[in-house]
Amino acid sequence: METLKVNIFGGQDVGKTTIAMHTAAELRWLGLRTALNYGPNCIPCNIAAVEINIFWRDPNTLTPYEAAGMCEDTLTFLIRRPKDYVSPSGHWMPEETLVAQDECLENTLRSGQVRYKSLPGMRTSVQYLIKKICDRVGYGK
């Protein structure tokens, strides 16, 4: 069985890990073997039907060429910071800096001509991911 690779990009504290973990749990409960990987050096998993890779990179070090290579033949999503985002108390980085990093990451994906869907860092994004993943692997057909 070929593994569907799903890439989840997003800035710091946008909710990409939370969304990925909830999505992985839901897919497993549906009976789809799902691997969850975190970081730029994810190890491919050949036993899963779905492999979810979570990426946070300093957008200044990710090149469009590298982004394009990472996203070839994948289902790719960019988790966006909700407009009502409130920085956690004691957060070391100003919100304006975080938003600027988010925009830089999105510009990098665009420059690399990466096909991606932008989603808000909210609970509703989990159901969207599950639907798109199930459609791609043919679940329920």
Record keyword descriptors for this entry.
141 residues, 4 helices, Rossmann fold, five-stranded parallel beta sheet
Detailed description of the structure:
The protein is of the alpha/beta class and 141 residues long. It has one domain (4-137): Rossmann fold, CATH 3.40.50.300. The protein is 37% helix and 20% strand. It contains 4 helices and 5 strands. Strands 2-3-1-4-5 form a 5-stranded parallel beta sheet. Strand 4, helix 3 and strand 5 (117-120) form a beta-alpha-beta unit. Helix 1 (16-29) packs across helix 4 (124-137) and helix 2 (64-70) crosses helix 3 (95-111). The protein is globular and about 45 Å long. The model has no long low-confidence stretch (mean pLDDT 86).
Number of extended strands: 5
CATH class: Alpha Beta
**Fraction of residues in β-strands:** 15-25%
Could you spell the SSE succession in H and E letters?
EHEEHEHEH
Helical run tally: 4
What is the mean predicted local confidence, pLDDT?
A: 86
What is the fold named in CATH at topology level? Rossmann fold
Uncertain regions: pLDDT < 50 for 5+ in a row?
none
Cα(first) to Cα(last) distance is: 16 Å
The count of domains is 1
Quick one: CATH superfamily? P-loop containing nucleotide triphosphate hydrolases
Instruction: Classify the helix fraction into a percent range.
Output: 25-40%
Apparent shape: globular
Named CATH architecture = 3-Layer(aba) Sandwich
Strand arrangement across the biggest beta sheet: 2-3-1-4-5
